[in-house]
Amino acid sequence: MSLSVRYAAQCCARQLRSTSTIRASSSVVSRRFNSTEASPKISAIVDQISQLTLLETADLVASLKSRLNIPDLPVGGFAAAGPAPAAAPIEEAEEAAPAAAEKTLFSVTLKSFDAASKPKVIKEIKGMLGLSLVDSKKFVESAPKLMKESVPKDEAQKIVETLKALGAEVVME
């Protein structure tokens, strides 16, 4: 019985140490958050941004990303990403523009299909997209419809060839 009491005391001591560390770090954060050292210019920008609608905010983010050459991060990319890249000089951006013009990711859209090959197309869509049979049928019948976005070129070409062989009209954009 004394073992369980000792264990409980150790657990309580650990808990107290961790909560005191959390309190200390949260007080630093709250002091930093409540600081009034922000310049008037920053305060004005924050006021303007807080009054934007959701669509306007999305446009703002897209504009900032393009102007500052910030790449899109994959979902969950913050933990895996290294340090933020420095902004490239203007000359490097101009040289990189022709290389970036070549598209590497495509969207695949099902435009139409032959009525005779409808069951084959439904079966193939079911396998590609992982949908149920009913959902696959609804998907095919609602053509034209976007199948996949941001697909690498070779995979997109394979999808297009497969569905064209079955009698469907597929576009890679």
From TrEMBL:
GO biological process, one term: translation
CDD domains linked: Ribosomal_L7_L12 (cd00387)
Sequence ranges assigned to domain Large ribosomal subunit protein bL12 oligomerization in this UniProt record: 41-87
Coiled coil: none
GO molecular function: mRNA binding; structural constituent of ribosome
Pfam families: Ribosomal_L12, Ribosomal_L12_N
InterPro entries: Ribosomal_bL12, Ribosomal_bL12_C, Ribosomal_bL12_C/ClpS-like, Ribosomal_bL12_oligo, Ribosomal_bL12_oligo_N_sf
Record's protein name: Ribosomal protein L7/L12, C-terminal/adaptor protein ClpS-like protein
Species this protein is from: Podospora fimiseda
